[in-house]
Amino acid sequence: MPLLEPDPAALRPHERRTPAADRVPDDLAHGADERLRDDLTRLLGADKTDETDKASKADNVLWKVSDLVKYASDASPYRFLPRVVVIAEDVADVSAVLAYARAEGRNVVFRAAGTSLNGQAQGEDILVDVRRHWAGVEVLDDGARARIRPGTTVFRANAALARHGRVLGPDPASSIACTIGGVVANNASGMTAGTTRNSYRTVASLTFVLPSGTVVDTAAPDADELLARAEPELCEQLLALKAEIEADAGLTARIRAKYEIKNTNGYRLDAFLDGRTPVEVLRGLLVGSEGTFGFISEVVFDTLPLDREVSTALLFFPSLTAAAAAVPLFNEAGALAVELMDGNTLRASVSVAGVPGDWARLPKEAAALLVEFRAPDRARQEAYERAAARVAEGLELIAPVPSVHNEFTRDAATIAGYWKARKAFVTAVGGARPAGTTLITEDFAVPPGRLAEACEALLELQTRHGFDAAVAGHAAHGNLHFLLAFDAGRPADVERYAAFMDDFCRLTVERFDGSLKAEHATGRNIAPFLELEWGPRATELMWRTKQVIDPDGVLAPRVVLDRDPRAHLRGLKTIPRVEDVADPCIECGFCEPTCPSQDLTTTPRQRIVLRREMMRQPEGAPVEDALLASYGYDAVDTCAGDSTCKLACPVGIDTGALMKDMRHRRHSAREERIAALTARHFAAVETSARLALAAAERVGDRFGDRLLSSVTGLARRAVRPDLVPQWLPQIPGPAARELPRTRRSEASAVYYPACVNRIFGGPGEQRGPARDGASRGPSLPQAVVALSARAGKPVWIPEDVTGTCCATIWHSKGYEEGNRLMANRIVEAAWGWTAGGTLPLVVDASSCTLGIAHEVVPYLTDDNRELHRELTVVDSLVWAADHLLPHLTVVRKAGSAVVHPTCSMEHLGDTAQLRALAEACAEEVVVPDDAGCCAFAGDRGMLHEELTESATAKEAAEVTSRHFDAHLSANRMCEIGMDRATGRSYYSVLLELERATRGGGGA
Fold first, then answer.
1. Angle ∠(517,159,180) on CA atoms, nearest 5
2. Span 309-487: which CATH code?
């Protein structure tokens, strides 16, 4: 009898709920208006003759209520529900949507990473996703310039440039997630960009689509001629505005003065002064325009030298005033970054892993400066260090707790720790905010000489209005950041926030003549205060500029310009409480680039956003039912469970763990019993699995893989796709029945061959050509044993490993009883094998190392938790790189190797060892810039092939773009996933190391 699909109601939130005023209304339960979605579907497929292409275009119009909800939130405190979402593939799609919007009187907002802090990436009509199909970096002139597509993250662009010793000027703290399109559209800067390295100063050229559909490439020699022919009225009006501004000496002086400090509030009126022609004026105006003037489809940056010699100090002062007084001294000494943290920020940051705990005892009045010098060579570095030492000698520094050293260092790990503490501002304050409160991140700038005064005034203002007082920022540029948390569902809290904003804006403008936005762009929060800062004359020119470029008001209304004095209070999002693990989420989107399902279904942020919308709804509401109907596949089934989102999340949320809990909720009692039964009798399961693989190998050899795929496909339909794996041609044959013989008496470590390596054969054991055509070699267990003996550190394989497992099989699927049973079994066995932890336990699959070392702990009995503390669990990569490689002689090397770091290696911190081993085995080693989790996730790649296909698409494109002699990793199922993705044969780096040192003996 077929098993039924899981009941969607099993995922209904258990938490007590109060329906929210900002919930999605019932009439949107069925998604977008039918006419709107049909119009756009026809429009995007109009130029396609192939039915497959037309179908793919239909998939690019997202209309379900779950689609609308997951795009309704970004990193800002605002929430606006789009009426439809379009995944634009090319400029033709963008132009078509703009033409439709003009004809139908609709409006369009572009969204890439959704890391904007003021609602710039949200719209109330047509939202166009320009991230998914818009990534790519072309390095030009040996790195002096780079042509970058708008969906490319800053981190990814800098990875490509680093090989050439170059870097982009803008360096926002969100660089891991924010995209180039958003960085340019907001003129985002960061820790070091200031007013000289930001987008406005370093963009060489832009290609963009105007609201009319006209495409402009500012680098084209005939760009002005083409624009004049296509848009004569636009050119005439832009030149008229330019002449008007230049004729007003007072206004011209005011514009220049406003950009002497960091300023992203309003449009760049200095573009009219800096640009000579309409195209040059537009190039300047598009920077910082927040998507209201056009769509930026390509950017060419002038890059900067990547100075690799770094010296950094975290210096502690008795007061904000003392710290601020030191800032210009370090600026004069050549510091690239001078970052400020007040005492409240420093003490709050102890909640972040790696930040010294004794900072909690720092005096309230204390403050710190993070000062960094970067140099192209050692001589210049030493000169900087001497200059810094002279400055430091004259400062009043304090060392109130033992972890404070007040010294400059070159140590990369220490420097990384300092920056982690600085970036903990949002982590500590935002993550620790009361559950259910909305977080606002604001930034402003004052003349650097008035920094301390501004800090003290801001702290007093926050305290007076009842907000937690904390401040940090880019002190070198007079740029400060602060956070506000309040309950947007309580009118009294909203009015308290409104009163604060009125006082803050007046304070910044009237007392300091500062910028209300230094680097986060105007956005919805500051739009009502634009005239307060710029005055009526300049503000009126901004309105006229918008009218000239976008006369129909198609693009992003109310994002930069808004005459409603209370516009910043419209659309504030409530944050309903959900599961405890997800409550701290600030919806920043840092998790999204790491997520394997980001281009398929949902991201970690979206999984939480959808959950919160369920909590806004009355129980059993039509919208909740519609969300639940999609959530099982979109969120739960297609989550790889790799938890790399936790590594990227500034508040450490493990959405993968939440989805595993969701899987558990959907299991029937019968399924849980079966899972526990497989754990109890895993020795028989292991043997049966090997026999099944052997039988499948024989069937495949005789009838081909198509028959096996058909049989498993039928079984999946009869049972359930999420329970029965699909047969894939890349699945290897069985491992050898017998493990290598070893002796316990002289062992340096206990070697635990993971069950996956006891079941699935390696390249030397399976049918077909081994290792990209190389001669057959040993199995992985044979290689580990041989390498260890060769290095003089023999290992012992216990005779009773059969039937044990790291428990990840059950853990990843949410089977609690089976997970608990196997977790305790492996710890008890390992404690006995290692003589109570006397010997290290070496594990030959990174996911299994992670499982035994960390993931089993919550499921252990109290007694077994004590045993676990005595174990030393070592990944085979670490064992080989740190303990074997120094004693081995490499006698042969491959020419080139590409490596695939697994998500488990990222969690374990083993990627450096993977690279070190690969470099010992190959002359050239490449880690793809787009390497990420393969999403094979044990067997999830056989349950949902589309997940692995989507997750590996970019990495596979890099790998297959050239020839490599070896394709290396260190986790069998991930290797199978990469085999499927690339058509290449991946295998353990330990197999390659054994080949490279065979016949070489020990060193």
1. 35
2. 3.40.462.40
